[in-house]
Amino acid sequence: MSESQPLLATVKVAKSYGPVVALREVDFAVRRGEVHALLGANGAGKSTLVKILAGVHPADAGSVHVDGRAIQFHDPVDAMAVGTATVFQDPALIPDLTVRQNLQLSEIKGSAFTHWLEWFDLQALDLDALVRELPLETLRVVDLARALARDPEVLLLDEITAALTADQAERVFALLTEWREQGRAAVLITHRLADVRRICDRATILRDGRNVALFEPNAKATNGTLAGTMQDVDEHELVEAMLGSGVGELEESDEPETASQQESDARTSSQEIAFAVQGLNSGDVVRDISFELRRGEILGLVALEGQGQERLFSLLSGDRQPSDGVILVDGSQRRWRAPYDAVGDGVVLIPGDRLLTLLPNLPVRQNLVVPLFSRIRHWLHIPSDERQLAMNAIDRLSIDTRAASQVRRLSGGNQQKVAIGRWLVAGFRTLLCFDPTRGIDVQTKREIYALLRELAASGAAILLYTSELAEIKLVCDRVLIMHDGRIVDEQNAAHATEASLLTAAHGLEVPA
C-alpha cells in the first residue's frame, strides 16, 4: 500500500432508516499514522457512519474500502477480521454478566486485556464483578481495553472521553499519540473541540448526513506517519462548518417583542422560585451546577452528547445523590434517597427512554394510574374515581387507545403521551423533561409543546432538556447551555439562535 492510500475509507456511502435519511453519499478516508476527527452536530450521521465501518449496519449504497480493496461487512466479526475495533458511546457489554464472562464471550485473551487495564490504572478491577454494578466511567475503560486487546489497526472511538475522569482522558490522549507513532489509525467522534485541536491530524465534518468539509492542516509525512495537529484551526471555523451558517454573524431580530416574549420576561422575573440547585456536583460529570426555576416558567437546557446532562437529571430526580451541593424545593432543602422521595415533593421526571417509565404489557389505564398504586387495592380493578382521572388524561392528551390493551402496541408518540399523562393523573409541581419529543411525529410534538405551555400557564415549573434546538424558541422562556459538566451560558429563548446555542454548547464564547 502506498503512503497516500487510505487504510479505511468509504465511497459514496448512503443509509436510511425508513423515511429518515441518515447518510447521503459520504466519502471518508483514514490514513495510517493519523488520528482523524469525525465531527458534526447531533443527528449529523456520525454514529451511523461508524456503525457501518464497524459492520453493525450495512450500507444501502456505496462501498467500504480497506487498504484500497472494497470489502462488504456482513456483521461486526467481518469488520474485526480486517483490523478494526470500535468503542461505542454506550458500552457494548451484557449487564447481567461479569466482566470475565463478557471477555469470554468476546474471545479476548485475559493477558492482553489486563495489560490495557494497567495502562488505565485499573489493574485492581474485580473481573468477577457484574457489569451492571460498575460505574459508567469504568465500563468505558473496560470496553476500550477489550477493543485494544484485539490489537487492531484502526480504532473507532465514539465520544470516548465524555464519561471519563480527567486522568483517564489524559491516558487516552497518550494512547492515541502512541497509536499514531506506530503507524496505526484512529477515528475520534467528539464534541470537545479542544481535544480535536490537541490530538487530531485532520477533521471531517458531517452535516445532515453529508460530508461538507475536510480540515487538513499542512503536515509533512515521515516514514508514513503524519506530523502536526489541528492547532492552527480556529474552533469557530469548525462550528461554522457543522452549522452551515456564519456563527460570527449573530444578529438580534429587528422585530418588536411579541406579547408572548414580554410575558416570558415577566414570568422569569416575578414568579416565585419553585425549584433551585446550588453548587451541585457529581464526580467529574456534573460540576458546580446552580440555577433557579420559577413557577409558570419553562427553562430549557441544551448540551451536546455526553456533557453531563443525563447525570444532572438523575440527580435532580432523586435517582442519584450528588457528591456536593443543595437541591431546594419551594425554598426548603431536600435530600432524596430515591425518586419516590422526589415524587413526594412534587418533582417528577419524564425520561428520554419512555419505556423506562411504562409497563409495556399492561393497558393504558393501568399505566396512567401507576403513581396512585398505594391508593388502589386491587391492581387490575381500578376504582371509579381513578378510572375517571385516567379517562380525563386520555381525552386531554388525545391518546389513541385503539391498541389500549397493551401500551407496547401504541405508537411512540402515544407512548410518550401516556408517560406524561400519568403525572396529569397523579399531580406534580415541577416537571423534569429529558428529550420528551425524541423519535415522535411532528403532530404529536406540537401537541406536547402546547401541553407544556398549558401546564406552565397553570403554575407548573418545567425544566426541558432537548436535543432539537428548534424547540427552544418554540417552548422555552430561558435556556441554559451545558458544556463539560458545567453551565457555561444562559440565553433568552426568544432571541437564541441555533448558531448561538451551538457555539456556547461547544464551550466557545458567543459573539455579542
From TrEMBL:
Residues forming coiled coils: none
ABC transporter domain location: 8-233, 268-509
Listed InterPro entries: AAA+_ATPase, ABC_carbohydrate_import_ATPase, ABC_transporter-like_ATP-bd, ABC_transporter-like_CS, P-loop_NTPase
UniProt keyword Repeat, yes or no: yes
Lipid metabolism found in the keyword field: no
Single annotated GO MF: ATP binding
Organism in which the protein naturally occurs: Caldilineaceae bacterium SB0675_bin_29
CDD domains named among the record's database cross-references: ABC_Carb_Monos_I (cd03216), ABC_Carb_Monos_II (cd03215)
Keywords associated with the record: ATP-binding, Cell membrane, Membrane, Nucleotide-binding, Repeat, Sugar transport, Translocase, Transport
Protein name: Sugar ABC transporter ATP-binding protein
Ranges for region Disordered: 248-268
Residues annotated as signal peptide: none
Biased composition (Polar residues): 258-268
